[in-house]
Structure formats: structure tokens, C-alpha cells
TrEMBL record:
Residues 2-50 form the BFD-like [2Fe-2S]-binding domain. One of its GO terms (molecular function) is 2 iron, 2 sulfur cluster binding. Keywords: 2Fe-2S, Electron transport, Iron, Iron-sulfur, Metal-binding, Transport. It comes from the Bacteria. Belongs to the Bfd family. InterPro entries: BFD-associated_ferredoxin, BFD-like_2Fe2S-bd_dom, BFD-like_2Fe2S-bd_dom_sf. Pfam families: Fer2_BFD (PF04324). The lineage of its organism: Bacteria, Pseudomonadati, Pseudomonadota, Gammaproteobacteria, Oceanospirillales. The keyword Electron transport applies. It comes from Marinomonas profundimaris. Its cofactor is [2Fe-2S] cluster. The keyword Transport applies. This is Bacterioferritin-associated ferredoxin.
């Protein structure tokens, strides 16, 4: 699904960026220009970011 229609950024692209090391909205902005146009995508992108970071943290906690 598209998260940012203005810049044609999908949830898959955002998740891939997070898996590659993006941990902030600023990092997503630099890579995908999230929120640079109308800004309606910011809330959804932030939820995706938080959920993915929680998943990563839980995975690392289970391994340790």
C-alpha cells in the first residue's frame, strides 16, 4: 500500500529502509522525502516506523 502518494512511497519501501538501518523520521525523509509535500503520510509512516522498531527490538531481546 502507498503510504506517501505524493512521492509514491510504499509501506514495503519504508519497512525495507528500517531493516537497512533507518531509525528516525528524518532518516525516512532523507531516503524517501516522506512528509515533504502535503504531510498526510507522516502519521502512518511514524506508526510503521515504531511498529518495525518494536519488532526488531523484540527479536534482538529474544536472541540475547
Amino acid at each position: 500500500m502507498y503510504v506517501c502518494i505524493c512521492n509514491q512511497v510504499s509501506d514495503r519501501a519504508i519497512k525495507a529502509s528500517i531493516q537497512e538501518g533507518a531509525t528516525t523520521m528524518r532518516a525516512l525523509y532523507k531516503e524517501h522525502s516522506i512528509g515533504s509535500q502535503c504531510g498526510k503520510c507522516c502519521q502512518c509512516a511514524k506508526k510503521l516506523l515504531n511498529n518495525e522498531l518494536i519488532k526488531i527490538a523484540e527479536t534482538q531481546f529474544q536472541v540475547a
